[in-house]
Amino acid sequence: MTLPVIKNYIDGEWVESNTEVFGDIMNPALGEKIAQVPYGTKEDVDMAVAAARKAYPEWRKTPPITRARYLFRLKEAFEEQFEEIAEILTTEQGKAIDESRGEVRRMIENVEHATGVTTMMTGYCLEDIAKGVDCSLQRQPMGVFAAIAPYNFPGMVPWWFLPYAIVTGNTFILKPSEQVPMTQAKVFEIIDGVGFPEGVVNTVNGSRDVVNALLDHPDIEGISFVGATPTAKYIYERCGATGKRVQALGGAKNIVAIMPDAKIDAAMPSLITSFFGCAGQRCLSGSILAPVGEVADELIEKFISSTKAMKIGSGLDEQTGMGPVISGAHRDRILAYIEKGIEEGADLILDGRDFSHPDFPNGYFVGPTIFDNVTPDMTIAKEEIFGPVVSIVRAKTLDDVVDLINTRGFANAACVYTQNAAVVRQFKYQVNPAMIGVNIGIAAPMSFFPFGGSGNSMFGDLKGHGREIFQFYTDAKVVIERYF
Ligand code: NAD
């Protein structure tokens, strides 16, 4: 049986990549190939940039309210095909279908927020900055932008950027993750149906060659990136070298602190989804559970029993709480971290290494795994594992937790469970991560607030979506004027 091959969408047309190299797209629950993705070339990128550049002058002149109307139509089209998008997402990524629905909802919320362009893109002015002299600031689009996406949110992450880039008058090229390009292929079919002017939105599939061609292309003004920290750093540096605007969001090591007064039973569902949702492959996933003081034993007992109650299986099964991880290679990487934890002396109190699903024997499953008595210097407490592996670091005081958080080398998100406002104030005042959850296990800002961490979790200053994204995609032109 020949597998479907993903195409590029350039200048309003579906086109084949001119590459000879293709990768396999897998269904991670079945461990089976479902399609092929071209590893595109510099020529593919040149073609997309040429189309985006050609489309830019007319699109820039299109009034913002008219540009927003394309997004209103797109939102309606997404709503109509909501279930289809979610199903494709689960099929190629593996996450539970309800999580995929949540992800598609967040994708659509970005379209909704972007339609506020006529308010969000306005400038400001002041008369008489000197006698008879007025000054105004206006926001202008800049040209062609591109975004490079990770595998864990094939639907949502590209939409932290795409709708804002185009609604502000730029034209755009997306490179989806080569591991999960089918969701955006579906989304681009819907875009095609809405009838944007040719060349305004384009997608080029591929891997490093496509990324490097985007980074080096002189006609691209800026890059939005989301992925692992080493890649984010590379993107940031290379954009610096080529003089591009850049926002590069990286990896994470998120800590969830449980204070002695925390309402453990009420917290439990959100803790389970924080650590095991998306099989731990979220940049906001809990990775370290840090009980403070005497709460530890009760917390751990309840956490283990809730974990054991979670159903593991195909994401397409409505009852599934946790699906597979993305690939065999990633499963092996996670298993190696578990071995490292044992070797370095942590107590393995729930072992997911030998998990095998009777109906899906070839799926890339790792069972939920919990280590107790992890110390801050162990590898599993320092590196991003990106799988269903929990490290419990028992802390004596809140100060210990703050110290633990601020010495991890990542600063994406941190959460605290407590009813005590003074504890919350200290926590949010002192910790470095830029996304904070209070009695919330996944501190995910919605589309109208900015998304992004600090330190090694985010290179650049303007984050994804929120108000700031309208600044990222526009230049502030200041006019100082007087008349004689
Ligand atoms: P990744 O860095 O391997 O890949 C991301 C993108 O970069 C892909 O499109 C890939 O083709 C490209 N890429 C990878 N290596 C490259 C290289 N050497 N040169 C050029 N391009 C390269 O990340 P991933 O494994 O797809 O995603 C998981 C990572 O993303 C995790 O670290 C996770 O924490 C992070 N993430 C962060 C956020 C956030 O908001 N900070 C959100 C989602 C995911």
Structure write-up:
Strands 14-15-16-13-12-17-18 form a 7-stranded mixed β-sheet, with helices on both faces. Helix 9 links the parallel strand 10 and strand 11 (245-249). The chain has 16 helices and 20 strands. It has helices at residues 42-61, 64-80, 82-93, 97-114, 117-120, 162-167, 182-194, 208-216, 229-242, 264-276, 296-309, 328-343, 379-382, 398-406, 421-430, 468-472; strands at 8-10, 13-15, 22-27, 32-38, 124-130, 133-140, 144-148, 171-175, 201-203, 220-226, 245-249, 254-258, 286-291, 347-350, 369-372, 389-392, 413-417, 435-438, 458-459, 475-481. It folds into 2 domains: 8-250 and 457-482, Aldehyde Dehydrogenase, Chain A, domain 1 (3-Layer(aba) Sandwich); 254-438, Aldehyde Dehydrogenase, Chain A, domain 2 (3-Layer(aba) Sandwich). 38% of the residues lie in helices and 21% in strands. With 484 residues, the chain is α/β, with parallel strands linked by helices. Helix 2 (64-80) packs across helix 7 (182-194) and helix 3 (82-93) crosses helix 4. The chain binds nicotinamide-adenine-dinucleotide. Nicotinamide-adenine-dinucleotide binds at residues 148-153, 157, 175, 177-178, 207-208, 211, 226-228, 231, 234, 249-252, 283, 384, 386, 412, 451, 453, 457.
Short description:
The protein has 484 residues and is α/β, with parallel strands linked by helices. The chain has 16 helices and 20 strands. Nicotinamide-adenine-dinucleotide (NAD) binds next to helix 8 and helix 9.
